[in-house]
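Quarterly update, task 2.4: uracil-bound model.
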Amino acid sequence: MSDPDQHAEPFDAVDIIAAKRDRHRLTDAQIDWVIDAYTRGVVAEEQMAALAMAVYLNGLDRAETSRWTTAMVNSGTTLDFTDLGKPTADKHSTGGVGDKITLALTPLVASFGVAVPQLSGRGLGHTGGTLDKLESIPRWRAQISTDRMREILRDTGGVVCAAGEDLAPADRRLYALRDVTGTVESVPLIASSIMSKKIAEGTGALVLDVKVGSGAFMKDLESARLLATTMVEIGADAGLATSALLTDMSRPLGRTVGNALEVREAVEVLAGGGPEDVVELTVALAREMLDAAGLPDADPAAALTDGRALDSWRAMIHAQGGDPDADLPTAAHTHQVLADRDGWLTHTDALAFGVASWRLGAGRARKEDAVSAGAGIELHTVVGERVRAGQPLFILHADEEVRFDRALASLDGAWTVADEAPESRESVILGRIGGNSNTLRPADC
Ligand code: URA
């Protein structure tokens, strides 16, 4: 054991790494110190990488996970909206393909007088980022000051903006480190990472959309349920009312994947139309948020059809400099994928569609890459619909024609037309965790 007095720090990183390596619990003081010392640069990257691997292999229990989260919250500034004079509620999705829910959900919930402070990210890899989608709206700005954010929350209600560098900075560094050390896929590390940012954001209630399936982080219901339960427990331990829906991400959500294409679809939902699964999930998440915000009798489905949600969207886009009436950008080229036989579309693989859309230019491979606003995929046909030979199934959009070949390669085998109609999916929602009831649909038990 090394002598901590030598460098005037209360602990030595090597001792903490060895403790977790040997499957011991970390004390609150050890966790507080290691996260703080890492943020200060006292714990080196290679030491934190070793600790992340020890956690990946040996886990953290509930108390350790909650303390780890709190330590990351305390590594930076926290926002406080308790003086707004209205309740606050937010939603976080673990990320999926065609997931444009935030776009419609934020103004929908705001239309009931609830403030929604959505600190969001840009996409990396096959899942799109909400900010990338909104940035396809001419003149809309993701970067706003905290004062302006507070003003919009008070006057308009919904804000979607980029998180400041000083919000949970320990997580920012640790997430980047985990990305290059094979330690992303650890439930306590994912849960603490997500929850530290949401707790620091200062929302009064939180609803989680934990995706399950090929296009999601969590490929099966068991691991999604574990992640959701861990996050709900962290919320409870931090005094933040948190619930989670487990939702299907085995196929793309809705009929569009891409930035401007998804904005267009979200506006359809806000105007009372849009695909059934997007509407179902938007309304279910809105109910959760409104309930947590103290409005259990609010009717979000009605606000989608009577114009209130659309008015709220227009105000929200205006407040961040955007023009809700401007034409959305379109890609220069399109390519149609046609059905080669009559039948029923029985399967579309979410991951493959996400990768194809990314290859068309809608996503980025490195943080500094630009994305194409118009690129992506329109699903002319979705699972369960009848098709005729020669009818368009999917329309690919890209700024450069050369992108089509690689996108088509990733769609190879990713969809099926068969003789029989598939069994219809009862609901996009597979289960719920949190609040007073943990329920799973009978088919999943
Ligand atoms: N998203 C996050 O913010 N953190 C993780 O660890 C994984 C996904």
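Highlight for this quarter: The longest helix spans residues 221-237.
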